[in-house]
Design a protein that fits this description.
Length: 101
């Protein structure tokens, strides 16, 4: 298996994804991809974008099972490359969902 990537979302959005067979973040429509993270990037993402939010879940994704393109692109604001999925995330690529908070 390839090194997993991660996406933080709400438990409610994850439940919707499981019922529908795919996960779709708002950024897919607005930016053309779904933001993901490598393991060491998750704490910073939580700090920057999810501070004070509860009812979150961290999706653990096997990149080899994704049906859409995965590219690593530079995020200039933090000068790091992040994994971006250019399409919905098929539920069978999510190997675990870990509750946060």
């Amino acid at each position: 298996m390839m090194e997993p990537i991660y996406h933080v979302t709400s438990k409610q959005e994850w439940e919707w994804a499981k019922r529908n067979g795919f996960f779709e973040a708002p950024s897919l429509k607005s930016e053309g991809f779904i933001h993901c993270s490598q393991a060491q990037q998750v704490p910073g993402v939580l700090e920057r974008y999810y501070k004070g939010k509860t009812d979150l879940v961290k999706l653990v994704i096997d990149p080899s099972k994704l049906i859409h393109e995965l590219k690593y692109e530079l995020a200039p604001s933090v000068n790091e490359e992040f994994p971006h999925v250019f399409g919905v995330i098929n539920v069978d690529a999510v190997i675990d969902a870990v509750g946060i908070n």
